[in-house]
Design a protein that fits this description.
- It is a single chain.
- By secondary structure, this protein is an all-alpha fold.
- The chain is 68% helix and 1% strand.
- It is built from 20 helices and two strands.
- A two-stranded antiparallel sheet has the order 1-2.
- A hairpin with a 2-residue loop joins strand 1 and strand 2 (90-91).
């Protein structure tokens, strides 16, 4: 049997999977992924940073102004010594570059369990994100969308492909906030006030929510989906919640954003610009220019009515990540996950599933070429989807105006 026929049979199999099988797929994910995660606990340097400041907050200490004599026994037990520690059990103050609300959430998880509280929170976000995806997929089905990805196929892709749980849990990072909030936005996409609340919380936990809010408002204004009073109220709710989340430790939290900004110029080996850094031809303005160009392209697509609300709520996340200089594979996986959500055909998810397996088994998560090849594949697929949809819409309009 030829390779083309084998691939054809595989595609047919995936496309024939009944959506009713989602429950069985969830059980498989629970048995083969979620339950084993509870025994997999490998702290990263980032994880001990979260723990250090979470412990400080739980002891009513300002995380942006840690006393010089503060020592964390939890951090010392989790990781004897790491690059973020000035001495065993002591994290450098400039790593307190997280928003106040995230500091509080982390401290609550720390109170539940001093070592695994945060880890359990991330597992919860992982599971709840899958549940949110099913809500999202069901709502799209009710809207009678055609050529959509089978929910069971996507669950297999995200839940049974080791690339995601290895990338986000081994070692532990906090990137599960992104799929959680992304799917929450997609579930609430037709509920403007819930969108405003979700975006404000997203911005309070991860600053990208501010950029998403700007694109959401632009989209609604251009498409005239909301009345001016509604838009004003949405902006007011967003700003109010975001402001309230920053009342804690004011004005010391300003230092956190400054520390974050100071680290943005570092060119990580996973960055799109890593080769320029090695050849000493890197200019710090390049990522800024490319990010702004990508954002302007999105605005142009909104004006031309080429993009959907789903794409506007997700693509800014992708562009914010892929042009980041301080990039790691776990962040790149967030961009890959978000783009996979926009896929309109099972074949795209199938190919992505195979790429993920190849990376885990052969290339490795540290493979720059494999990970970026995956990114460009999905970017190309989304680009072609937008072009194909625009051509289809144009043909429909032309057919409607032609005389019969």
């Amino acid at each position: 049997m030829s390779w083309s026929r084998i691939i054809s049979h595989i595609i047919t199999f995936f496309e024939s999977i009944s959506e009713n099988y989602s429950v069985y797929v969830c059980i498989l994910i629970l048995v083969y992924t979620i339950i084993p995660l509870f025994s997999l606990f490998r702290p990263s340097d980032d994880y001990v940073i979260y723990q250090y400041f979470a412990e400080a907050v739980s002891k009513d200490i300002n995380p942006y102004s840690i006393p010089s004599d503060f020592y964390s026994g939890t951090v010392s037990d989790l990781l004897a010594f790491g690059p973020s520690q000035s001495s065993p059990g002591v994290i450098r103050q400039q790593y307190a570059d997280y928003p106040p609300l995230l500091m509080i959430i982390n401290s609550l998880a720390y109170r539940v369990h001093n070592e695994k509280g945060l880890y359990s929170l991330y597992i919860f976000l992982y599971v709840f994100s899958m549940a949110l995806y099913l809500f999202y997929a069901n709502s799209r089905k009710l809207e009678s969308r055609s050529s959509e990805v089978n929910p069971s196929v996507f669950l297999i892709f995200i839940g049974l492909n080791p690339v995601f749980y290895i990338g986000w849990f081994d070692p532990i990072t906090d990137k599960l906030w992104f799929p959680f909030f992304t799917l929450l936005l997609l579930v609430f996409r037709n509920k403007p006030y819930w969108i405003a609340i979700t975006l404000s919380l997203f911005a309070a936990v991860k600053g990208i929510g501010i950029i998403l809010m700007a694109f959401y408002v632009i989209y609604q204004v251009i498409n005239k989906n909301l009345q001016p009073k509604q838009i004003f109220f949405i902006i007011f709710v967003f700003g109010l919640i975001l402001a309230l989340s920053h009342l804690f430790w004011f004005p010391d939290w300003i230092n956190g954003y400054q520390w974050r900004a100071e680290r943005q110029g570092f060119v990580n080996h996973f960055s799109l610009f890593s080769f320029l850094g090695k050849s000493n031809s890197y200019w710090s303005g390049i990522p800024i220019i490319l990010t702004n160009v990508a954002f302007l392209l999105l605005v142009w697509l909104i004006v031309k009515h080429f993009v959907t609300l789903d794409e506007i709520l997700t693509l800014p996340i992708v562009f914010s990540i892929i042009f980041t200089t301080e990039l790691t594979y776990d962040r790149l996986l967030v961009a890959i996950f978000v783009m996979a959500l926009l896929a309109k055909h099972n074949i795209i998810i199938l190919i992505s599933y195979i790429i993920g397996l190849f990376i885990v088994k052969y290339a490795g998560l540290d493979s720059w070429f494999a990970m970026w090849g995956w990114v460009f594949f999905l970017l190309s697929a989304i680009g072609w989807q937008i072009i194909a949809r625009e051509r289809k819409d144009r043909a429909t309009i032309q057919k409607a105006v032609l005389p019969t």
